[in-house]
Amino acid sequence: MDKILTSLMLVGVGALTSIFLILAEFSLISYTSSVTLSIVFIGREALILLIGSIFFGEKINLSSSIGIAISMFGTILYGYASK
């Protein structure tokens, strides 16, 4: 019974986190645009891949490296252009 309760609590915390993330996204879109949100998520995904490579030893092949570099360059360029 204790494992079931722990599992339900973890699922509940995950669900609440997802709800708050969606609310934060809607709030962000109301202040900016959906393009900005997409750019932020692309940058976030590239950072996640880089962090995974640095800290957890994930292997990144050449085409992934080029894609990450292009994504990061585009994210930085968009940041400068939107000012």
From TrEMBL:
Supply the alphabetized keyword list. Answer: Membrane, Transmembrane, Transmembrane helix
Q: Which InterPro entries match?
A: EmrE-like
The beginning of the lineage is: Eukaryota, Sar, Alveolata, Apicomplexa, Aconoidasida
User: This protein's superkingdom?
Assistant: Eukaryota
SUPFAM superfamilies given for it? Multidrug resistance efflux transporter EmrE
Biological source species: Plasmodium falciparum FCH/4
Q: Where are the transmembrane segments?
A: 6-28, 35-56, 62-81
Q: What is the protein named? A: EamA domain-containing protein
**Quick check: keyword Membrane in the entry?**
yes
